[in-house]
Amino acid sequence: MKRSLSLKQKIWLTYFLIYTIPFLILGGMVYYNAVVSLQHEIERTNMRQLELVRDEIDKLMQEMNTLTTHLSMDPELTPLMVGRNGYAQLESVRELARYQSYNPHLEDILLYYYGNEELYSTLGTMSKDTLANEYYRFSDRDISQWLEDSDIMLGSEFIQAVNLKLKGQYSNLIAYVSPIPQNSFLHYGKVVLLLNGESLTNQIGNLLGDLRGSIFVLDESKRVMAYKNSGLPITESMLADVWQENWSPGIRQIAWNSKSYSLAYVDSERTGWSFVTLMPTEQFLSRVISMKIVVYFVLATLICVGILGTLVISRRQYRPIDRLFQNALNILPRSAEQLAENELDFIGNTLRTTHRSNLELIERVDLQKEIVKEKFLLHLLQGKLSNEQLEKGISMHDLYLQGNCYFVLIVDLENGPIGLLSAEHKEEVSRILNHFVFDGGVAYGAKQDWETEMVLIVALENEYEDTKRMRHKVVMELQQRVVSRIDARLTVSVGQMYSEPKLINRSYIEASGAMEYRIREGSGGVIFFDDIQNGNHDDLWYPIEDQIRFIQSLKQGDAGIATETLRIIIESIAQRGQSLPILRLKYSDLINSVFKLMRELRIVDNTDKIRDIAEFTSLSELEVLLRHLVEDICNHVVRKRESNNTRLQNEVITLIQSRFQSIDFSLEQLAIHFRLSSSYLSRFIKEQTGMTFTDYVQQLRQEEAKRLLVETDFSVKEIVGLVGYIGVSKYIEKFRKQEGITPGEYRKLYSKN
After folding, report:
1. Gap between the Cα atoms of 15 and 267, Å rounded
2. Potential cystine with 495: which of 28, 312, 482, 510 (Cβ 3.0-4.6 Å)?
3. Could you tell me if 263 and 278 are in contact, meaning their C-beta atoms sit under 8 angstroms apart?
4. pTM of the full predicted structure?
5. Maximum CA pair distance of the chain?
6. HTH araC/xylS-type domain: which residues (predicted)?
7. C-alpha span between 753 and 747 (Å, rounded)
8. Cα gap 275→222, rounded to integer Å
């Protein structure tokens, strides 16, 4: 399988492309402006130079034409004058020499009249044979016949000639032949101007400047009229080998003997000649080649600098990603399935996994905070907190318990107007009353065991003279909120108002006592402890509110309040100074209330203490015996509450263990089964097991999956379905996160032979 690029390579490639694309565009522009434009300029310059050469040669040819015209019209050079005598011939030679001096390119001037035996030259008079054998030879022509040829010749022509005067050396000449007279059908002689080809090519070379190549002058038939080589291995025949008839004037590159040459030529409309320069390309475009080298060097340098720069930048940009990647590896080791992922993908997966874990952790912390907060409130209701613990708890849980007016409300969560409340309604009421804010104060809720009642600790911001009216207002607002959610009014009992938070447990016991009268008030009623107290006032008997407070403190297992209330009742009986029979009736009623509660609580292991109480001999002895019995009753209530929690725990755990393999098993189903709210049940499971419902179920599923991996041959997919998971890939990732290895690796490592 082809391995993809790593993230570091991708980052470098990205920066390289970001650098390279503009660089290539700018480099192309620079190259075009610096090299291509220079090459075009050099080519245009060379063509202009050749055109200048053409114009100069055309001008020279015009001078030749003018010269021949003057010669043909010179009265001193007519046939009559030159043939008079020897002196006249000498004067004719001098006259020709004078005409020769007008043009430095003229090698000689020949003058011939038809029918004459001799011809005239700047060198003197000579015969045609002497001319052909010793002085000049004309290619492809018999000079005697050519000179005598008197065919109609209207214009001038050019022919090639060779200078024979230089012994052992041959010099190319260009013969310019014109009839005498010009532009006439009848002519009687010819004038031949012999141009020095080398002088002509030298002038062309001077016009072209520093030319290291060859210069060719071609006639209308593209035959070489003049040729000059500047020391290069370029021969006259080379041009004939490479020349093509369809070429047009301009510059082109040609190859000859595996070498590149630049050829430039222009045509002359006046003479029909072609002027050609041929030189090696490196000489013709030397400046371009030098510029190319400079540009290539600069571009190569910039490319190297760019590559190094992109490497440095990409490394600096990758460094924080690598640090994140290494930190992610420390958080979550990389599995074999994740090796194909790049670092960002792995970091993203790690962040998502960590985010999910953090959300779960936050959920657990919030749940734990609610549990701790509820425990604090329950301890506050039970009066188990010292002043220091009370202040610390209020600060830690951010509770507003700073005023001077506190009381307790108890809401019946068990019975509604149409029967038992459902778990959903309990959940809704709990959500409303957990933190109940109203105009003038705030209330904090805590659920009783088995979620039968919800206790609200109410703190008012200000003191009120009519405390009952204010408490009634709070209860009415509470009822309205409950009705708006579940469309039912619940029974509420209200304790008395106290000025300190540490006395809240008294109001709680009073509200608990008031709740005992819910049968009398009916469902949805409001029961104030004050009303019970006022409605049962009897100067003959001890206060009924003290009796209710005493019995409720025993039911709550609050030995402190029970002992204190017992002392108040006994002191109240002793202070009334009534007759002995009445006193015995009061003591019997008090003792009977205790025995009745013991029977209700099914306390049967205090027979000796009951006998001792029945046989008391003094009031102080009765108080001591009842105090001991109160402590036993409170201890029994606490043990029973713990036993109830243990029983609920056992039932909940048993049901979870029997149904955790079901895919649709949820906390809501469990809450409906036990007729508890989901929030209460979730906190209860967390309190009893130390884990949330989700964590506990996942632990059971994980242990069962590990057992099946080791003890069975089921596939991973089958095991995932058996333990209640959906999605094999997600389960494998979860398994690897918890165990550090995949299910397959776990099976190989722990399976039995």
Report:
1. 55
2. 510
3. yes
4. 0.48
5. 204
6. 650-749
7. 11
8. 10
